[in-house]
Predict the structure.
Amino acid sequence: MRPIDVVRILLAGILGGVVFTVPILIGWIVPMEHRRKIFYLPWLIFARGICAICQVDMHVQGREYIRAEDYLGRLYISNHQSAIDIALLVAIYPLPFLTKRENLYLPFIGLAGLLAGSIAFNRDSGLERRQVLEKIVDRAKRHTALYIFPEGTRSKTGELKDKISLALLRMAWRSGLEIVPIALHGSYLVVGHKPQAANGRYPVFIEIGEPIPASKFESEKAFAQHCWQQVIKQHDKVLTEFRAELGTVAAKKVISAES
C-alpha cells in the first residue's frame, strides 16, 4: 500500500469520528423511521469528504432519478469496482447499503451505516444469504431504499463479472419493488494507483438509469435479466466516456492494466 493511501485511510477515520459521533449517540435512542433524517447530512458530508480526500472527479448523469420523495419501494443496483463505490454513490444521494459483516468493525463508519439502515451479512453463510434477501425487501418497502451490488465482490480490473446472483432482483419483482440501474467506471483505479488524468485527479463516470417498475414484466426472470442488462448497457457508455476523458495515451495505459 502506498504512503498516500495510508494517509487517506487515516483521514477517512478522523473524518468519520468527527461527523458520526453525535448522530450515533442520537441514533441509538430513536426508531428506524427517524434515523434516515438524522444520518442524511452526516453521511453526505462524509462521502463527499472521501471524494475530496481521494481526489475523485465524479461525472454523474441521471441525478434526477434519485429524488428525496422516492426513498421507499426501490432498490438501486450498481456494478462494483472499489471500496470507495459506497462513498461515491452516497455522495450523490445518501442511502444505506448492503455490506459484508466485516465492515461493521470499521470505527464510527460501520456503526453509522448500521444505524442509518444499512444491512450487514456473512457472505460465507448460505443460510444468511437467503435470510438477508427478505430483510432487504422489507427494509426497502417499510423504511428506506438501499444501494446494492449484485456482483457481490469488487472487480479489480473494472470489467463486469460474467456471473451474478439475480435472486434479489427476482424477489424484488415478487414484492413489486422498482429497480434503478446504476453503472460506474474508474473507481478501481483510485486506491493503490497513480492518477491517470492529466490534472492529477481520478475521474469516475456514473450513470443512473430510469427506474424499472416490476409491473411491466410478466415474470421474475425477465425482470431480473432486464435490470442487469440495463446496468451492462450503461456501463458500456460510461466506459467509453472514461477512456475519452483520459485521452489516447492514458487510455492505452488503462487498457493495458485491464488486460
Notes: The first strand starts at residue 56 and ends at 61. The mean pLDDT is 90.
